[in-house]
Amino acid sequence: MKNYIDEKFYSLVKIIDEKNIYDIYTNMVYKFSKLDILTQKSIEDFLNKFKYWGKISISECNYSVFYEKANIFKNNLNDYIWLYENLKDYKSKYILFSILNNFYCFDFENLANSMEKIYKHYYDLDLLPNLSHEVFVDVGAFTGDSVLDFISTYGKAGYSKIYCYEMSENNLEFLKVNLNGFNDIIFKHNAVTDRAREISYDENEDSSATKEGGKTKSVKGVSLDEDISEKLSLIKMDIEGGEKQALIGAKKHINQTKPKLLISVYHNNTDLFELPKLIKDFNSGYDLHLRYYGGPIFPTEIVLICK
């Protein structure tokens, strides 16, 4: 017998399955048009600021971002079903339903209910209660926020070593200042990707290396398999859409030693199902969980926790 979360998910699947791409798209546009104008404008500004998911222009009636979502909904419905059926807890399943229903009809209520209100970003104590002496790799360490949250959650005994990878020179300066005084932290001025190569990026005034319009720089790209030989026990990745290539570059670690993984799965439209499938291909022994650290309007800060 299905519970109410199963019923919600499979009812949405049935709706999508019975519609064509255009009908799914027109439903999204219609639901968007019924939002108040301030919410519409907020969503437009957000999507156009980060440019991960597609274009939108209310004044030009350009909603290509919704058409892209509709196309993926229809053509990858079985991938979403695969993910749902491979998630190991009903909180994760509810989060997936809430994200997809938000995409389809701007369901803010369920998305708001999915927001994590207890634990710090990445560190869900129901899933990762007792981390100790971890060899932790923070890919996309930014200015040290995730490392500081790790230490405040698990204490200094939570790690034996932390590798902090950050490709932005601006961010790296703040990172070193913010983590000054902590022992056994190794700072790496590199992009993490699938193989050794030069990576170009835009350095911006707001210290972000992900948005367009900044000063173009280059940095050495490395793979975790080539750059770290010791056994890793925890890997976190948040690198603005580069997670797939970084995972490919960590295939040996994932396959041979099965480190716990904390992976952002929202920067590309297909990350939500592609990255879990990739990880399971590398090592079928992982249990998959989703946690949601974003806001109630548009789904971002979706984290895949594999253990």
Count of separate DSSP helical elements: 13
Name of the CATH homologous superfamily of the largest domain: Vaccinia Virus protein VP39
From the alpha-carbon coordinates, what is the Rg to the nearest angstrom? Answer: 20 Å
Mean pLDDT: 94
The geometry reads as: globular
Sketch the major β-sheet.
7 strands, mixed
Question: Helix coverage percent of residues?
Answer: 40-55%
User: In angstroms, what separates the terminal alpha carbons?
Assistant: 28 Å
| Uncertain segments | 205-214
Helix/strand/pairing category:
alpha/beta
Q: Assembly state here?
A: single chain
Strand order within the widest beta sheet: 3-2-1-7-8-10-9
Strand proportion, as a percent range, falls in 15-25%
General description of the model:
With 307 residues, the chain is an alpha/beta fold. Helices cover 44% and strands 17% of the residues. The protein has 13 helices and ten strands. The strands form two sheets. It has a seven-stranded mixed beta sheet, sandwiched between helices. Strand 2, helix 9 and strand 3 form a beta-alpha-beta unit. The longest helix is centred in the N-terminal third of the chain and has 16 residues. It is globular.
Note the main attributes of this structure.
single chain, 307 residues, alpha/beta, 2 domains, 3-stranded mixed sheet, 13 helices
Break the fold down into its secondary structure elements and pairings.
Blueprint: H1 4-17, H2 21-33, H3 37-50, H4 64-75, H5 77-86, H6 90-105, H7 108-114, E1 134-139, H8 145-154, E2 159-165, H9 169-178, E3 185-188, E4 191-192, E5 197-203, E6 215-222, H10 224-227, E7 234-237, H11 243-248, H12 251-257, E8 260-264, H13 271-282, E9 288-292, E10 302-306
Parallel strand pairs: 1-2, 1-7, 2-3, 4-6, 7-8
Antiparallel strand pairs: 5-6, 8-10, 9-10
Helix pairs in contact: 1-6, 2-4, 5-13, 6-7
